[in-house]
Backbone:
């Protein structure tokens, strides 16, 4: 649906549709683990930003329906996809 | 979509019917619970989430609001897990219920979707039975027979969330069958019997009088003389519980979660013997949040046995005064006040002195006089005033110890107690009123000793320095002794026995050696 959607308070990497469910995806990559795993970088602050962005997108596009937040973590060649990774805080 | 399911929660000893309303709507995924849920109810979110997933359903990624009506009452207990989960499934249209408006649900969920037994099912069931709109109950399997005690409701036991959902969708449901009267008949009976106790004729006789007239007893004697053995056998000679009495006792055990799935009903009079380190709240009830019943309420319609009476904290003993007078305890909070039933017979036991051997024919007492005084002073006068019968339990003699078990069985004693109670029932025209509860005017009316007996009593007043209260107590016990003998008059033989149970107290209070 959209990529790198930017709003006043942040950015969503991927917005897509899975069946009839709108999915906001945050992609996090790490080339090394010096700063921890990619999943750990999804902080409360990041979640707030994402949910703000999501609301913004929904409003602008007049979307009505269910939605969820996914996280894709990339670690070297490893890719992990978390469906419904969190609920907006 | 909005769903409504019925459930219940316990407040004090009563229950309230809770309407669980669930709304699943569009919006940011979020689960919000309102309606004053306490901590354990709030935590149910995580259990419900996992249970729904692990039962093969999906937890909606939508905005979920659960409201527990009436919204101004605090909800405690984990029994709301199941109705909330079912409500969410219904509101998210994963389940189409069939005629569930009249069915109440209760049960705790585990993460894998199993339904676990909860406490307080009986009070909820009793409350539900009073509502005309409620016809059935869905309860955890372990609580099924407990819920069926109510009789007028259909009970459907479930072991898992899936089973509950299946039940939801069925048009024909078959409730469990539980014959409560028959269960009550079958399970009445005690393992103990008075014939187990060797010797101790005087103490046995005193307990018989206590059973007949509802008197409280203090047993004093050296360690190992059989005080607790005697106390544990008092229920065996008390009249049988009626079904209603059993139900009122069971209600308290249900709230405390002390009913196993194999004992849905308390069929016998219980003996509670709390340790002397018990706290004030443990004894009379209380605690955080909604007050919960204490030991005295668990002893409702049974026996409260306080071993090592002087070791109990003074505050704990003083709080027993209200229940001893009124048969109930009121716990007042700034927001609520609850009344727990606590109608019990008190049996207290103590050693005559700190080492326990004062007055013992064989072992020597090693206590100093001031130690003995201090030990006895720990029990307050007003507390001892609630006790009618004082008995000195002596250590068994060698011959008594070696003798084969003999003596009267409990059933023989119980027959006499029954006769004594029948006399009281005719006298007061009430089944639940006993000689020990007589007020001054009733003592005046019903306790008129014969002239010879009066003389005997006068002599005792002079000799032992009886107070007016002691005098009344002697008359009441005398009345019971006469009732036991089937006599309408109070003769000298009855009064002299009653005096005997009193003199020991006077000596105890005055701190004399026994």
Residues:
């Amino acid at each position: 649906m959209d990529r790198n959607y930017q709003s006043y308070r942040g950015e969503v990497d991927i917005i897509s549709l899975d069946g009839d469910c709108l999915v906001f995806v945050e992609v996090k990559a790490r080339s090394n683990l010096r700063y921890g795993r990619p999943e750990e970088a999804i902080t409360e602050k990041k979640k707030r930003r994402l949910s703000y962005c999501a609301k913004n997108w929904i409003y602008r596009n007049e979307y009505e329906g269910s939605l969820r937040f996914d996280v894709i973590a990339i670690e070297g060649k490893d890719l992990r996809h978390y469906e419904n990774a969190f609920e907006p805080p | 979509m909005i769903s409504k399911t019925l459930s219940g929660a316990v407040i004090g000893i009563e229950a309230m019917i809770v309407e669980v309303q669930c709304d699943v709507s569009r919006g940011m995924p979020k689960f919000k619970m309102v309606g004053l849920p306490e901590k354990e109810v709030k935590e149910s979110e995580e259990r419900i989430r996992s249970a729904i997933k692990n039962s093969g359903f999906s937890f909606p990624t939508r905005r979920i609001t659960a409201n527990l009506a009436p919204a101004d009452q605090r909800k405690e207990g984990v029994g709301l897990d199941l109705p909330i989960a079912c409500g969410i499934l219904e509101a998210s249209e994963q389940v189409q219920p069939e005629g569930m408006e009249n069915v109440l649900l209760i049960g705790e969920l585990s993460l894998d979707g199993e339904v676990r037994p909860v406490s307080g099912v009986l009070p909820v069931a009793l409350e539900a039975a009073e509502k005309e709109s409620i016809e059935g109950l869905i309860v955890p399997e372990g609580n099924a027979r407990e819920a069926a005690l109510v009789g007028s409701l259909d009970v459907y036991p479930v072991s898992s969330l899936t089973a509950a959902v299946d039940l939801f969708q069925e048009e024909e449901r078959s409730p469990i069958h539980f014959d409560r009267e028959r269960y009550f008949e079958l399970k009445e009976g005690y393992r103990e019997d008075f014939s187990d106790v060797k010797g101790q004729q005087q103490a046995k006789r005193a307990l018989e009088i206590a059973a007949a007239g509802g008197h409280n007893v203090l047993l004093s004697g050296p360690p190992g003389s059989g005080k607790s053995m005697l106390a544990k056998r008092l229920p065996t000679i008390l009249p049988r519980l009626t079904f209603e009495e059993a139900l009122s006792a069971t209600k308290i055990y249900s709230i405390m979660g002390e009913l196993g799935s194999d004992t849905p009903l308390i069929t016998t009079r219980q003996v509670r013997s709390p340790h002397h380190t018990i706290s004030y709240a443990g004894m009379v009830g209380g605690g955080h949040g909604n007050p919960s019943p204490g030991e005295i309420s668990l002893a409702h319609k049974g026996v409260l046995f306080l071993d090592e009476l002087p070791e109990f904290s003074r505050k704990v003993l003083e709080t027993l005064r209200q229940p001893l007078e009124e048969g109930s305890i009121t716990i007042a909070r700034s927001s609520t006040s609850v009344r727990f039933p606590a109608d019990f017979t008190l049996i207290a036991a103590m050693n005559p002195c700190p080492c326990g051997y004062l007055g013992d024919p064989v072992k020597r007492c090693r206590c100093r006089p001031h130690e003995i005084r201090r030990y006895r002073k720990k029990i307050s006068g007003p507390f001892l005033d609630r006790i009618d019968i004082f008995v000195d339990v002596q250590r068994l003699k060698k011959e008594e110890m070696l003798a084969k078990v003999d003596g009267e069985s409990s059933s023989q004693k119980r027959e006499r107690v029954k006769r004594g109670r029948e006399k009281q029932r005719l006298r007061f025209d009430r089944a639940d009123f006993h000689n020990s509860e007589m007020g001054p005017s009733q003592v005046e009316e019903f306790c008129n000793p014969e002239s010879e007996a009066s003389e005997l009593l006068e002599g005792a007043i002079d000799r032992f320095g009886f107070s007016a209260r002691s005098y009344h107590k002697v008359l009441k016990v005398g009345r019971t002794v006469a009732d036991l003998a089937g006599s309408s008059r109070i003769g000298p033989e009855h009064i002299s026995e009653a005096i005997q149970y009193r003199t020991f107290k006077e000596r105890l209070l005055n701190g004399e050696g026994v």
User: Anything to note?
Assistant: The longest helix of chain B spans residues 410-428.
